[in-house]
Amino acid sequence: MSTQKITPKQRGYLIVNSHPTGCEATVERLWQSIEPVDAGGRAPVALVLGSSAGYGLSILLAGLRRHGIRGVGVSYENAGNERRTATAGWYRTAATARLAADAGADFTFVNADAYADTTRTEVLELLAERYGPVDYLIYSLASPRRTDPATGEVHHSVIKPIGEAYTSPSLVFEDGAATVGTVELAPADEPERAATVQVMGGTDWRLWVQALTGAGLLGQDFTTVALSYVGSEITAPVYRRGTIGAAKEHLEATAHGLNTEVLAGRGRAFTVVAGAAVTQASTAIPSIALYTSLLRNSLGAQGWRTTGDQAVDLWEQLTGARPLDLDEKGRIRLDGWELAQSVQDRVRKLWEDPAAALADAPAGPTWFHDQFRELYGWDVPGVDYQVPVETSVPWPVAVSAAS
Ligand SMILES: NC(=O)c1ccc[n+]([C@@H]2O[C@H](COP(=O)([O-])OP(=O)(O)OC[C@H]3O[C@@H](n4cnc5c(N)ncnc54)[C@H](O)[C@@H]3O)[C@@H](O)[C@H]2O)c1
């Protein structure tokens, strides 16, 4: 146990420590931003993979607040020790569990490697014993590596272009000030492309759906979604036409395979194309920070759709409250606000001279930097960082009427 005053330890796009109260405050704010509705009726069972951050966390919170879901959230976080704080996702999960319990929801949080067969077994047993068949499986994992459960091989994803090298302006922060630098990426070789598909493609999603099917744990109207991204032509060389894009193609093809081969009429599988968001996963992608800052400048706070807004939108579509917004490839689209022609035209204009764009309007990069720091619980409005804080926080145990 250690109660202490802590200060951020940041190196570029990496912050190695997290603030428990700050992380809690970000979850609380996200929760408050989601307008509650009285769901009524039976509480659907949801399994959320990647529940401690980004889209997975937002979808979980929106499901709790608006649709009375119960079920299981899985993430892979670190408790910390005498010298290190826990990871931000650990603290966010503790905060999420409190909100779920206060809302009367029976939710269990599992901290384990979602790619491991042992985790699948543990989660399936938990579902069978406590919750029953799953109505919604949300697949929102983002990881730099995956251990193949069949072979034990560790695959490492890379963020690289395919075919030719890519040089792009990028956003550099030095002592909090934003400048424009350059990022040069050599093209991926075939093993790197294949490894990225192994990590971020649909192989593991399929294993989860097969496991639920095999265990007889598909709800009557079973629906599964996996998060995808298309993004702008501006970032396409490093994203959609790069290694990560190859993985997303695989994920999208997996949806088709799940529908035709695994579910075969016993449920629905979709990929969901969400818009740009500042998350731990996205800040690792070169040039995305600059693009997102300019996108923010183009849209302003009013036009920006948060992960919470999009999560609400997704649930409306999944529950049939409004029709599915499917594209020609059968993907659910939540990213119309980002890819609207007028928005992209404005970003492209700014991208022609990004240094001038930042000088003219520093609000975008400042916003990006704040969002980035908040991912780790830093600089969150209303949090007093002078107050010593307990950094050792227990992982939540399920507390509900069912326990
Ligand atoms: N961030 C964006 O701009 C954006 C846009 C559209 C789509 N997406 C997609 O959304 C999905 C989620 O991305 P994000 O940006 O929300 O990521 P994130 O980094 O915010 O969250 C990733 C989550 O995965 C969990 N996780 C990672 N490895 C794990 C493992 N081995 N076992 C269990 N849990 C593990 C983490 O604990 C965390 O909960 C990805 O498919 C991503 O491509 C992201």
From TrEMBL:
Q: Which UniProt keywords apply?
A: Fatty acid biosynthesis, Fatty acid metabolism, Lipid biosynthesis, Lipid metabolism, NAD, Oxidoreductase
Domain Enoyl reductase FAD binding, by residue range, is 326-389
Presence of keyword Membrane: no
Q: What is its EC number?
A: 1.3.1.44
Q: By its UniProt entry, which Gene3D superfamilies does this protein fall under?
A: NAD(P)-binding Rossmann-like Domain
Superkingdom of this protein's organism = Bacteria
Q: Answer yes or no on keyword Nucleotide-binding.
A: no
Spell out the molecular function terms from Gene Ontology. enoyl-[acyl-carrier-protein] reductase (NADH) activity; NAD binding; trans-2-enoyl-CoA reductase (NADH) activity
Q: Which InterPro entries match?
A: Eno_Rdtase_FAD-bd_dom (IPR024906), Enoyl-CoA_Rdtase_cat_dom (IPR024910), FabV-like_NADH_b (IPR050048), Trans-2-enoyl-CoA_reductase (IPR010758)
Q: Which reaction does it catalyse?
A: a 2,3-saturated acyl-CoA + NAD(+) = a (2E)-enoyl-CoA + NADH + H(+)
Q: What class of enzyme is it?
A: oxidoreductase
Per the UniProt entry, what is one GO biological process? Answer: fatty acid biosynthetic process
Query: Pathway, per Swiss-Prot/TrEMBL?
Result: Lipid metabolism
Task: Identify the PANTHER family for this entry.
Answer: ENOYL-[ACYL-CARRIER-PROTEIN] REDUCTASE [NADH]
Subunit field text: Monomer.
Q: What is this protein called?
A: trans-2-enoyl-CoA reductase (NAD(+))
